[in-house]
Amino acid sequence: MKYEGLIIRPPSEAKSLLLQVTVGCSHNRCTFCGSYKGKKFRIKSLEEIEEDIIEAKQFRGIKRVFLCDGDALIIPQKKLINILESIRKHIPQVERVGTYANAKSILRKTVDELRYLKDLGLGIVYLGVETGSEEILSRINKGVSYNQMVEAALRVKEAGMTLSVTIILGLGGLKGSQDHALKTARILTEIDPHYVGALTLMLIPGTPLYEDYQSGTFEPLNHFGFIKELGVIIANSQFTNCLFTSNHASNYLPIRANLPQEKEKVLDLISYVLKTRDPRMLRPEFMRAL
Predict the structure, then answer these.
(1) What 3-state DSSP class applies to 66?
(2) Euclidean distance between CA atoms 229 and 29, whole angstroms
(3) Cα Rg, the chain, nearest whole Å
(4) Contact present, 32 and 207 (Cβ < 8 Å)
(5) d(Cα 205, Cα 214) in Å, to the nearest integer?
(6) Contacts of 129 by beta carbon, 8 Å cutoff, 6+ apart
């Protein structure tokens, strides 16, 4: 397998074959993200991709494939169909293909086009929602509005795909924490995704948000501020059937809960942590990572 640069995948794709179909991220302007700063975005040639797919035939037990890097849905429809058909041809035992996507790339495809990709095996899309605050979306240079984010998410669901979204605790800073939490709860309720993964903000040197922090224009939350924000989001979100997790390595308080079934149980835990403020209940700082 030929990889260019650091490869990033969701925690749930740990056992998947990582197939790099693009290098970098098509947007690559988010002020908090340093993941793809050293990569010039390009779509790999079909020949390069098929070489990796054919090589993967020798690996036993491949049930899932994850398309890397940051946004495989930006690939033109015809070429993406060819990639999925090649996976089906050479690794027929694959049960599901997944990919990161941003709202702009989703909105470039119709529901019928997404449904066609789903029929070829693209079963799950990971969408970085990050926040429900229009102001913060603009400030972090996400490149889409609240309404566009909702439309993109609902389009994925309408196509029959599984939708997993990420949000970032602390993205509004100390001053914007309550607004960020309440509006993120609102967008999660409106989207009603199958999965939510809450990450905790980590300030990355070299990013614009880190520069704001150094200049004093962005004041981050403390450990318990992040957890309070998590509680506000969960308390104010309404889901039909969602697996909500905060077990990413960036988080101080790992949570894995089915909502709404376990909502009160989770809120009781968060309330207890905030009441006792026992640092032993939190992931140590040295164990946090992206």
Answers:
(1) strand
(2) 25
(3) 19
(4) yes
(5) 10
(6) 149, 153, 165, 166, 167, 184, 187, 188, 191
Amino acid identity at 20: Q
Tell me the pLDDT tens digit for each residue of 176-196. 999 999 999 999 999 999 999
N-term to C-term CA, the chain: 24
Angle between helical axes of 223-236 and 177-191 (0-180°, round to 10) = 40
What letter would DSSP give residue 27? S
Q: Which helix (H) or strand (E) holds 180?
A: helix 177-191
Provide the token pair at 250. 């960036």
The CB density around residue 90, as the number of other CB atoms within 10 Å, is 14
Burial of 249: CB neighbours in 10 Å, binned 0-12, 13-18, 19+: middle
Q: What is the DSSP string of 89-105?
A: HH-TT--EEEEEE-HHH
List, in sequence order, every beta strand (DSSP E) within the chain. 17-20, 22-23, 42-43, 64-68, 96-101, 122-130, 162-169, 195-200, 242-245, 256-259
Contact 40, 23 (CB under 8 A): yes
- Give SS3 for 205: coil
Determine contact, residues 146/197, Cβ cutoff 8 Å: no
Helix-, strand-, coil-residue percentages of the chain, each rounded to 5: 40, 15, 40
CA distance linking residue 126 with residue 69, whole number of Å: 12
pLDDT digits (tens, 9 = 90+) for 87-115: 999 999 999 999 999 999 999 999 999 99
Whole-prediction pTM value? Answer: 0.95
Does residue 71 contact residue 101 with C-beta atoms inside 8 Å? yes
Cα–Cα distance measured from residue 288 to residue 290, given in angstroms and rounded to the nearest whole number: 7
